[in-house]
UniProtKB/TrEMBL annotation:
Coiled-coil residue spans: 34-61
Protein known as: DUF4174 domain-containing protein
Entry-linked Pfam families: DUF4174
Annotated keywords: Coiled coil, Signal
Domain DUF4174: 23-136
Secretion signal, residue range per the UniProt entry: 1-20
Protein species of origin: Salegentibacter holothuriorum
């Protein structure tokens, strides 16, 4: 009986881990912008609209956008390919606000964190001042 229970716990934990989104796969390849909200509220939509205007600049800076709401998440700016998971929301939600934008650098570290709409200008200035981005810009000249 105990072996059966342990086996089912193991299988359940393994299955949950497969469903979990592991952001570390982006480390040293992509910068991430996490847009986190309880639901697709006004700020959430405004943030998406702000970023959609600058898709080429996002690409140049190796930015991957994660849309994260309470029970699911999606990558990119399109309203498709949602995956059911609460883990990213639970990990990154802001306790005192219903909205959060988080920039994660190539090294996996948090570089910018705010609970109001992030302007593309502020996002790009923050990234462009980073040493790795400076090196990328020199290399691409």
């Amino acid at each position: 009986m105990i072996k059966s229970v342990c086996f089912f716990i193991f299988i359940f934990a393994f299955a949950m881990n497969l469903n979990a989104q592991d952001l570390s796969k982006h480390q040293w390849k992509d910068r991430l912008v996490l847009i986190i909200a309880q639901e697709k509220n006004k700020k959430f939509q405004q943030q998406l609209t702000e970023l959609q205007k600058h898709q080429q600049s996002l690409k140049e800076r190796k930015l991957v956008i994660y849309q994260i709401i309470a029970e699911k998440y999606s990558t990119g700016l399109a309203e498709e390919n949602w995956k059911n998971s609460i883990e990213l929301f639970q990990k990154y939600k802001e306790e005192k606000s219903d909205f959060r934008v988080l920039l994660i650098g190539l090294d996996g570290g948090e570089k910018l964190d705010q609970t109001k709409i992030l302007s593309a200008e502020k996002l790009f200035n923050t990234i462009d001042s980073m040493p790795m981005r400076q090196a990328e810009m020199r290399k691409n000249k």
